[in-house]
Design a protein that fits this description.
The protein is of the alpha+beta class. It is built from 6 helices and 7 strands, in the order E-H-H-H-E-E-H-E-H-E-H-E-E. Its EC number is 2.3.1.-.
Length: 185
């Protein structure tokens, strides 16, 4: 069973270890010094930044991280996405990783994403949809989104997290159940 808890400063050494894993580092491309982890994740932990960071736990064991933000809180990011696809009012975005090497390749990515989508509808009653851009070369990530029920809605160019990647991205979306965009017809 996947459960969630907010990331806290005592979790930074664990997060640092995850960010240092080659498979994570390839796509997240973060500095991993203790100072850099505190700089990049501390503001959200302290509530100084409107994004939210959650640890995913499998039977109580932390195994992954999901970040969530309301796109309206990040106007530049919203504008970048809106240049590629329609972004409904109330849209959110997520980013995610599985940090424990022994749990990669076991189907946890789609399960984690699906569970977090459900939590998002509960946590954000005004949330209309979740839009997730993924570097086109990161097949494992966009396949996890599709297995979790998100659909590819667009392709376009965005600045990649890792400078070795080109700008090609796929955008995936899921709408709140029962919303007009989710209804057939």
């Amino acid at each position: 069973m996947i459960t969630w808890r907010r990331l806290g400063e005592p979790d930074f050494p664990l997060l640092r270890r995850w960010l240092e894993q080659p498979r994570v580092a390839r796509w997240w491309h973060h500095e991993t010094s203790p100072e850099a982890v505190a700089r990049d994740f501390g503001p959200a932990v302290r509530g100084e930044e409107p994004s939210e960071d959650f640890l995913a736990l499998l039977d109580g064991r932390p195994f992954g991280l999901v970040q969530r933000c309301r796109l309206a809180d990040y106007p530049e990011y919203l504008a970048d996405l809106a240049a590629i696809t329609e972004v409904p009012e109330g849209a959110l975005s997520i980013d995610y990783l599985i940090g424990e090497p022994d749990l990669i390749g076991r189907g946890l990515g789609p399960r984690m994403i699906r569970a977090f989508v459900e939590r998002t509808w509960d946590d954000h009653p005004g949330g209309s949809s979740i839009i997730v851009p993924v570097v086109a070369a990161n097949r494992a990530s966009w396949r996890a989104l599709e297995k979790a029920g998100l659909r590819r809605i667009a392709e376009g160019e965005l600045e990649p997290d890792n400078p070795i990647d080109d700008r090609a991205h796929y955008l995936h979306r899921i709408d709140r159940p029962g919303s007009p965009a989710d209804l057939p017809g």
